[in-house]
Amino acid sequence: MTNRGAVLKMAPLGKKFEKMDMLGMAKIAGCAYVATVVPNNPRRVESVIKKAVLIAREVGPTYIQAYTSCNIEYAIPTDKVMEDAKTVENDRYAFSEYISDEAKQYLAERYGYKEYLPKPATATAAIPGKV
Q1: Is 44 exposed, middle or buried (0-12, 13-18, 19+ CB in 10 A)?
Q2: How confident is the model at residue 39 (pLDDT cuts 50, 70, 90)?
Q3: Domain extents in the chain
Q4: Which whole-number Å values give the CA distances from 72 to 5, 6, 17, 19, in the listed order?
């Protein structure tokens, strides 16, 4: 999660490599649900965990990458941890969610997630003079 070059207690000479694309690796590995979340939106965290558990039970593996501020490593005062999470979310850790088609269908049919129901086909308007 730490950017390359950052000097930390665990990397006193600076982090020497880029972040690994864990989300991409999870998708390639076949995870049916992959999400990134930070703790500053508790309802979103709850939703992500709920979907991950439901999908893991019936469809396939899931992966959640959750950012938590390391107030010891980064010397962030405890009362500023949530502020840090919001800053990080806006800067480099935006919420993202991948749900396979099979998982969307499962959530829609079994648990009523309307946003994953198939969209009805729209009728195309007849063009005058065309048959």
Answers
A1: middle
A2: confident
A3: 22-102
A4: 18, 15, 22, 20
pTM of the entire predicted model: 0.76
Which are the contacts of 29, defined by CB distance < 8 A and separation ≥ 6? 61
**The residue type at 48:** V
- Angstrom distance (rounded) from CA 46 to CA 82: 17
For 86-126, how does the pLDDT look when each residue is reduced to its tens digit (9 = 90+)?
777 887 788 999 999 999 999 999 999 989 887 787 755 55
Contact 93, 66 (CB under 8 A): no
CA distance 96 to 33: 11
